[in-house]
């Protein structure tokens, strides 16, 4: 965890908060800390493939796992294809459409 920087005035008026992010903490050239993004590891992708394989048996659990990965790892657009490559084309379409159809008024899709 990294402490959020604060000004002298704000240090007296509010508590310091801790930023929790799925990023790796590193030391920069000044000796301070910075966060760097680490792509998914092979192990993480293998675990996701095992979850995704069960999509046809339990689509709700798989969709929830996909949502959890999004919250936990905060993937960017270059990570999404890696996750989707672990699924069949039909499963990809179901995962992609699920969040969209759940937020679109009935009859629009």
Structure commentary:
- β3 and β4 form a beta hairpin.
- It contains five helices and four strands, in the order βαβββαααα.
- It has helices spanning 8-13, 42-53, 59-73, 80-84, 89-103; strands at residues 2-3, 18-19, 24-27, 33-36.
- It is elongated, with a radius of gyration of 19 Å.
- 49% of the residues lie in helices and 11% in strands.
- It folds into two domains: 2-36, no CATH class; 42-103, no CATH class.
- The chain is mainly α and 109 residues long.
- A two-stranded antiparallel ribbon has the order 1-2. The chain has a two-stranded antiparallel ribbon with strand order 3-4.
- Mean pLDDT is 70; it is low at 17-21.
Walk me through the topology.
Blueprint: E1 2-3, H1 8-13, E2 18-19, E3 24-27, E4 33-36, H2 42-53, H3 59-73, H4 80-84, H5 89-103
Antiparallel strand pairs: 1-2, 3-4
Topology, number of strands: 4
Mean pLDDT: 70
Any idea how many domains? 2
Order of helices and strands: EHEEEHHHH
Question: Which range does the strand content fall in?
Answer: 5-15%
> Which shape, going by the Cα principal axes?
elongated
Structural class: mainly alpha
Strand order of the largest sheet: 1-2
Low-confidence stretches: 17-21
Write down the Rg: 19 Å
> How would you sum up the major sheet?
2 strands, antiparallel
What count of helical segments does DSSP give? 5
Cα distance spanning the termini: 42 Å
Oligomer: single chain
Helix content class: 40-55%
């Amino acid at each position: 965890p990294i402490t959020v920087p604060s000004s002298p005035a704000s240090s007296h008026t509010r508590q310091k908060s801790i930023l929790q992010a799925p990023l790796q903490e590193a030391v920069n050239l000044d000796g301070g800390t910075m966060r760097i993004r680490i792509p998914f590891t092979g192990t993480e992708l293998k675990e996701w493939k095992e979850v995704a394989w069960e999509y046809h048996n339990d689509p709700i659990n798989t969709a929830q796992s996909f949502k959890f990965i999004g919250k936990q790892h905060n993937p960017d657009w270059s990570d999404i294809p890696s996750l989707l490559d672990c699924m069949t084309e039909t499963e990809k379409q179901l995962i992609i459409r699920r969040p969209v159809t759940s937020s679109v008024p009935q009859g629009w899709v």
